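A sample follows:
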Amino acid sequence: MEENKRSSFMEKVSAVIVDKRNIIFFIFVIAALFCAVSRNWVQVCDDITKYLPSNTETRQGLDLMDREFTTYGTADIMVENISYAQAEDIRETIENIEGVKSVEFDDTDMHFNSAAAMFAVTFDGTNNDEISIKAYKEIKEELKDYDLRTRSDVGNPLKAIINGEMLIVDIIAVVIVISVLLLTSQTYAEIPVLLITFGAAAILNMGTNYLMGEISFITDSIAIVLQLALAIDYAIILCHRFQEERQDKDAREAAIVALSKAIPEISASSLTTVSGLLALSFMQFKLGYDMGVVLIKAIILSLVSVFFLMPGLLVVFSPLIDKTHHKNFVPKINFLGKAVYATRFVMPVIFVGIAIFAFSFSHKANYVYSQESTESIRKNEAQLDSARMDSLFGKNNQMAIIVPAGDYNKEAKLISDVSELSLVEKVTGLANIEAKNGWYITSSLNPRQFAELANLDYEVAQFLYTGYAMNTGEYGQVVTNLENYTVPLIDMFDYLNERRDDVVLNLPKNVEEELDDLAQQLADGKKQLRSDDWSRIVLELNVPIEGEKSFEYLDIIHGIVARYYDDYYVVGDTTSCSDLQHSFENDNKLISVLTILFVIAVLIFTFKSVGLPLLLIIIIQGSIWCNFSIPYISGNNLFFLTYLIVSAIQMGANIDYAIVISNRYMELKEKMPLKQAMIETLNLAFPTIITSGTMLVSAGFVIGFLTSNETISAIGMYLGMGTTISIFLVMCVLPQILLMGDIIIQKTSFTIKKSANVTHKTGTIRINGRVRGKLDGVIDAEVHGVFRGSLNAIVDVGDIEELPVQTEQIEQSEEEKPEITDGGSK
């Protein structure tokens, strides 16, 4: 009873968690089963432009197009090593496939070059309609005996490719994690505990993603691997705590004490990671919010699994854990500590010089805003096919101009002006689609001209025009000017189709068939190019998707359209890149500032010092600059999203390595000479850093090398390289900077000055907690036991109790002699 009274609040909570483990197991099983089903409810978005701010031209234009127009599915079909006559036969074969609306092919270099034919196929449905998917599959089946290459978004092939690749990545990541744990763990039986704990957290995170409604394909692809790399530390910390307490306690008590100590330690560690991810969620480009929220949720659910599920697992597996201890495979690194101390006046100077150059180089990197401007290390079949097509026929840059509908003459003038631009290869709009005999579908015809075009009797045409005028309320035209009354061809056909069931024209069969064909062409054209309120004009340009020249051309097109319309949109990959560029300029500053501020706030709270957090930030920020100077030095493009995501994760996650070094060094330098303190610091911190760091580095490089999506691959590669650089700087430069910055740390510390926390006791005193001060000397350690003397120290965690004199003999027995450990590690 008395022991319960002395238990801290955290120990009481921990006891409930451990004792109610069977109920907790049941809850986790039910939650895991539900999430295994609900993960299939998650909607995945494969279009990153959907995450653009709502006020950008691209987002507004795309939303308008989705509402107002039908965009049919298309495919580029290339067949090599054939003659032109064979190509004509193939075109006929494709045209006869059900679901194919049209096939564009001719003898120009755009369609036949170097014994290769390029067929531009349009389907009867959209990219996701079953009729388009079935027709696309049938085309590939019909032409499988040819040297065939295809390119299309029909059926969303990207999703299947990424899912297949990420399944392999996940499996390899798990193998790597198990291998690392085998080398760095203390017992073999703790590995299944760690894997079950993480597996539960992963399935809970995947299953709760449906609550967001929709997540990006990038987030969906890499979240589980990043969760593993970022959050496995928490389980390892609790496992090590349990091993320490298990040496002199039974399994239940060891789990309770270990959990009570690990909760504040793990929570503090997770805050820095959450801080970096939280900064992502403030991006204007909402993909940052998407990824930030999912990964923060992953961290929180990992904490839930570690704090609630893992303690019970440790108790259940404790017999096996006790039986499967093995030797420590992690070597001592005394040599590194000695080398670091010997170069303590050299390396910081070199680091500062490198950091200055890295800062400059990272800002000179060629940032790009289209995935197609970067390359992944691995290429999938679709990418290889597309590259081959581009090498033979080039790659066009497509744009759409959206203007208010109703004035066909104005549209025709706009099309004419845009067509005169030297790098515009093709313009498609209602105002320049030829219907027949040189007439366009928006041309205004009088009754006689319409009769000649449609092969009708003049009287029939007059009858139709009279009906049209009456229907639109233009009665004066019928009475005085019917012969010269003109109506746009597309409007007359609309009227004709509406009244076909009401008016009997008694037309010859061939004329009716011809009218039906024209009406179908007009209907298809209208679905794609005109709605009740808007018209769409499609351009094909011979300019790159992005770059200075492309953006200049975009400005020119904006200028031409602005001559005719006040309200308009220019939509396309180039516009998207321009919007992303402007968004990046703001997001880059925002993310950099917020990440540093959030992390500094957490570190100040953790270390109760202003100077130490700044020194740690310098190291990690230096590693970020070094990481992103690589694209400039190597001459490669850097996708903007890669920089934003990796820099935030690198700052939030890698700072933990610096915290481990700093904690150890600040403790040990009070107990031993600085050289020995530095050597011991690296020896003690190395297992933790190498375990966590190896997992994050491996996860990054596995993603980078095994995924073909350019964005996902780049995130993995730069995360792996950045973490490697961070580990090197933390192990080889940070201790020296801490040594040189010791005066700064002491001057900016505000813990020692808070005299209100200093406890003065004399006599026989029980200590249970972390204390710092004089105890017949200076102490900064965790103390469990009793000592006799004078206490003049700060109690950071835990409590103290002054004992009656009569308990002195009992308390000084061998079983309860004071036990002092450095930071809790024996």
